[in-house]
Design brief:
The complex is a heterodimer of chains A (302) and B (359). Chain A has 302 residues and is mostly helical. Chain A is built from 14 helices and four strands. Chain A has a single domain, classed as MetI-like (MetI-like fold, Orthogonal Bundle), CATH 1.10.3720. The model of chain A has no long low-confidence stretch (mean pLDDT 85). The longest helix of chain B is centred in the middle third of the chain and has 18 residues. Classes of the chains: A mainly alpha (302), B alpha+beta (359).
Amino acid sequence: MNIQGENKTQNRIFALLPLWVVIGIFMIGPLLVMAVVSLMESNVYGGVHFKFSLSGYRQILFDTNLFDEIEFNPAYLIIIARSFMLALAATFLSLLIGFPAAYFISRQSNKVKNILIFLVTIPFWTNLLIRTFAWIIILGKGGVIESSFYFFGLLDEESSLNLMYTNSAILIGLVYSYLPLMVLPIYASMEKMDLRLLEAATDLYSNRIELIRKIILPLSMPGIIGGSILVFVPCLGAFIAPDLLGGGKKLLLGSLIQFQFSYARNWPFGAAMAMFLLALVILVLIFNARLNRKHREYANQK
Amino acid sequence: MSEKKVNAIDVRNVTKIYTSGNAQTKALKNANLTIYDNEFFTLLGPSGCGKTTLLRLIAGFEDITEGSINLFNQEIVYLPPNKRPVNTVFQQYSLFPHLNVFENVAFGLRRLKKDENQVESRTFEVLELVQMREYANRKPNQLSGGQQQRVALARALAPEPKVLLLDEPLSALDLKLRQAMRFELKTLQRETGITFVFVTHDQEEALTMSDRIAVINEGEIQQIGEPEQIYESPSNKFVANFIGEANLLSATCKTPGENGVCELETGHTLNLFVPPHIKQNDRVTIFIRPERIKIEKSSNQKSQLIISEFTYLGNAATIQLNSNNQLINVNLPIEDLKVFKKGDFVDIQFPKESAQVID
C-alpha cells in the first residue's frame, strides 16, 4: 500500500505536468509580466523603461504637484470605492433576480428545465461588446424605452428620460452581462437539493415563505456564494458596460486600467492598479472560502 | 377495549388516479377504511400497491381524485399539508442537513410559534424519549442510520400530532437494528398514545407490531383485520400468499354446507366449513398453512405422498410433498428433523379448523 502510494504520488505529478505547463504559460506567466511591469518606470511612447521604481504604486495614492512636492490624491481611491459599490450593487441585483429565476427553473419538468437552461446560456453566444451596444438602442435617446413612453403619452416629445450615461445604466449593463453566472450555480445547488426535504418541512407546518427562508435559502447557499463571486469579480474590473453605457464620464477601475495601457501610456501605473485589483479579488475569495467552510459539512454528506 | 372506539381517520371511497400525458394509473380504487384512535394500524402490501399513496393522501402531499378523508370527524382533504395536524416519518428520514439534531426536532414547534421555553422543554423531552438527548448538537450526517431514524421519529412526534404517519421507516436499516426498532416503535406508540399509521411491505413487521392491518394489492384493500385474523383466515388467495407461507390446493367439493367434505387431488378428504355458495362437485381451492399439516411415516405402501424436497433451517425444516404433481409444503418441527428424510413415503393429516375454502 505504502510503496504503491508513493508510486501513485509520483505518477500523479507526472500526469499533472501538462496542466502545470498550461497554467504556467497562460496564467502565471502573464501575471509575472504584470507584476514586473508594475515595478518599472513608465515610458511616454508606450512600454516601460527597465528601471526599478515604485512610482506605479505610489501614484494610486499620491500625486506630484507643480512644486515637485508629493501630496495625497484621493481621486483613484474614489474610483476604486465607486467600482466596489457598483460591483456590489450589481451582485446584489443579480442575486435578487437570479435566485427566483433559478428556483423557478429547478421546479420545472426535466424537459422544460433543459430548454430554460439553454435559454439562460444563449447570451454567451454573442460578443459582450455587441450585446452592450444593444442596450444603447434600448436605453438611449429615442430608444426602445423612450419611444414606448412617447407612444403611450407618458412623456412629451421634447423631454428625455436621460437613461443613458448614468450609474443605473452601468448597473443594468453589468447585471445583464453577468446574470447567467449567478443563475447557473444557484440552479446547480437547487437541482441537487432533495425535494423530499421540502415535503418534510411542509409536513412540519412550514408555509411557503418559511420553506424558502428555512430550507431552500440555506441549502442553496453554496450556489449563492459561488454565483456572487462569479458576478462580483468581473464586475469589479468591467470596462465595456461602464464605457458604453456610462459614457466613461465617471471612471471605474476597469476603464482606468484599460486607459493607462492605451491612451495614457502609463503601463506601470496600469499594472500596479491591476495588481491592486487582484489583491482585492483575492481578499474577496478568502472571505468566500471562510463562508464556504460553514457549508462544507453539508457538502460532505452529499 | 370495552370503551367506545373513537375514529381517528375515516377513508371514504377514496380513488387516486395519476395522469401523465394520456396515460392514467389508478393507484387507489374506491378505498374504505377506518383507523381508530390510539391504534397501531399498518398498511401492508407489495411495492406499487397504493399503500404509500394512501399515506401521502392522508398527509396531504397528493391531491385526492375522489372521495373524502376525515381526521377525527373533520374533513381534511382541502387542507394543505402544513395545516393538517399529522406528521410523517419519511422512508429516507429526510432530516434537514443544515440543522443540528435539536433544531431538526424543534423545527415543527418553531413553525407553530411556540415560545422558546416550550420549544426547548418539548424538544428535550422527545429526544429523551428516543434516547438521543446527548446528540442534540450533532448534525444529521454525523449520525448512524439508526440514530437518524430516532431523530426523524422525534421530529415527527415533537409537535404532538394527532396521527403519526410512518412511511416504511425501517426499510433502510439492517436486520438486527430493524428488529430492535420494531419493538421500540411499538413501545413508543403505547407510551405516547398517538395513533400510528405504518406503511410496510414486510409482512413480519406488520404481524409483530400492528393492532390491525389492512392488506392492499393493486390499489384495492384486500382485507382489514387483526394480525391473527389475517394470518389464520385470509379472505382471498392474495392475502394467503402474501402473509406467510400458504398451501393453496385444488380440490372438489363432495358435501357442501357447514360440515362439508372436500377431496384433494391426492385423494385425501378433508372435513371443513364450505361456504353456502359452493355446490356439490364444484372445484374449490383449499388454504392451509404448512405448519398446520401433520405427517407421519406411512405404514402401508399405498401412500402416494413422497418427500421430494427437504430443506434444513436449523431450528426447523421445510419439506415438500409430491403427489401426482400436486406440491404440498409442510413445516417440520425440530423434534421430527431426524425422523424423516428425502424420498420417504408419508401419510398426511389435516387437523380440523386449520383448512378453509378460499376464493
